[in-house]
Structures are given as C-alpha cells and as structure tokens.
Design goal:
Layout lengths: L4 E6 L4 H12 L5 E7 L5 H8 L4 E3 L8 H14 L4 E4 L8 H4 L6 E5 L11 H8 L3 E8 L9 E8 L6 H25 L2 E4 L2 E4 L1
Parallel strand pairs: 1-2, 1-4, 2-3, 4-5
Antiparallel strand pairs: 5-6, 6-7, 8-9
Bound molecules: 5-O-phosphono-beta-D-ribofuranosylamine.
The site of 5-O-phosphono-beta-D-ribofuranosylamine (GRF) has 14 residues, from α1, β5 and α6.
Length: 202
C-alpha cells in the first residue's frame, strides 16, 4: 500500500525536518517525504534536503505580491507532488486561508512552548523570562490563528535554576525531535477525530 506523502516546509536549520525524515526512513512513521519547500534559498535545511536526495523547492515570498499568491504557488506545487500532509518545521510564515483550506486538518506545526502559553516568536525565551518552572513543546494542527490549532502532542521540559533562554531552547529542541514523529505516527496509525478543539484518539 502506498504510504501517505508528506510535504515539509522550512525556513532555516531544519533539525525538525531531519527528525521527520529519519523517522520515515526508519519506518517509525509510516509515511514518505515527497517534497521539502523553503521560502528562503539560504536555509541550511534545504541544502541538507537536496544533499539527502529529497525533492526540494525554494519559493521566495519576496517574489509574490501577496501572501495568498505565495501560498497558492506552494499549495499547487504540493498538490503536484501529491502531498497529503504538510509539516511546518520552523517555517517562519503565517499561512493564509488559501493554504489552510487546501489541506483542512492536514497541516501540522511545532512550537517550542506549551501552548497556549508563549505563542509567537521565541517561545523558549518568553517562557524563561516569565519564570515558569515547566515549559516544553507542542505539535498542533494548524488553523488560521498563529500557534493556535488543536493540540496533538505536548512534551514537558523542566526549567532549571541555571538555565537561560538558550540552554532551555536546546533541551526543548531535543524533545521537539521526539514530539513531531510521535504526533505524525499517532495521526497516521490511529483512528482520531476532533471534538471541538480536542484531538481524540480511538
Ligand atoms: C523550532 O524550535 C520550532 O519549534 C520552531 O522553530 C524552530 C525550528 O528549528 N517553530 P529547526 O529549523 O527545526 O531546527
């Protein structure tokens, strides 16, 4: 049987992309990475993906008049690649309705804090500055609001007395690399449904 096809969107390092690729290659996640898309040609992750033999595409948002035009171009290329699930992995762009409606409840994002706390940029630093004792990461379905959709997986990370934002971020990233494959595996292998904004697994 054909495996579900993933599209991974990045803007930077792509360490979460690598964890997803590794999990697909090991069979832990029963899916195939069909394409990696970056909105930045200089993203280190896209070079890695290319070297790794994955289909790659750079579509710079600067070459489109509107967010919707950029999103339309990406969704068309994802469709061409027969992508069924989209993984945002450090993709630093808000998605318009053009994109979200093209893959309803089939877009995932990872955020480096326990949502709904510390949405937006630098969630790890925000959490450290706020003084929480536990932070972590969240994998969630994407809706039209930033870092907002239904939560699939969260992993907790204690904040240590001698942490700073950077050290905390490093330990959260370790958990991110577990959380994203865990969320994908659950969604692809178990029956699930939405009850309001709660993701319920059967
Ligand atoms: C991660 O911390 C992720 O949670 C956030 O952006 C960062 C991307 O890191 N959305 P990487 O590019 O996957 O290494």
């Amino acid at each position: 049987m054909a495996l579900p096809r993933l599209g991974i969107l990045i803007s930077g390092t792509g360490s979460n992309m690598k964890s997803i690729v590794a999990a697909c290659e090991s069979g832990e996640v029963p899916a195939e990475v069909a394409i990696v898309v970056s909105n930045r040609g200089d993203a280190p992750g896209i070079q890695w993906a290319d070297d790794h033999g994955l289909e790659c595409l750079v579509l710079s948002h600067r070459e489109y008049a509107t967010r919707e035009d950029h999103d339309r171009a990406i969704t068309e290329r994802l469709r061409d690649a027969r992508v069924e699930w989209v993984c945002l992995a450090g993709y630093m762009r808000l998605l318009s309705a053009v994109f979200v409606d093209a893959f309803p409840n089939r877009i995932l994002n990872i955020h480096p804090a326990l949502l709904p706390s510390f949405a937006g940029l630098h969630g790890q630093q925000q959490a450290w500055e706020y003084g929480v004792k536990i932070s972590g990461c969240t994998v969630h379905l994407v809706d039209l609001e930033l870092d907002h959709g239904p939560i699939v997986v969260q992993r907790a990370v204690p904040v240590l007395a001698d942490d700073d934002g950077t050290r905390l971020a490093e330990r959260i990233l370790v958990e991110e690399h577990i959380a994203y494959p865990e969320a994908l595996k659950a969604l692809l292998t178990r029956p699930w449904r939405l009850d309001g904004r709660r993701v319920l697994f059967g």
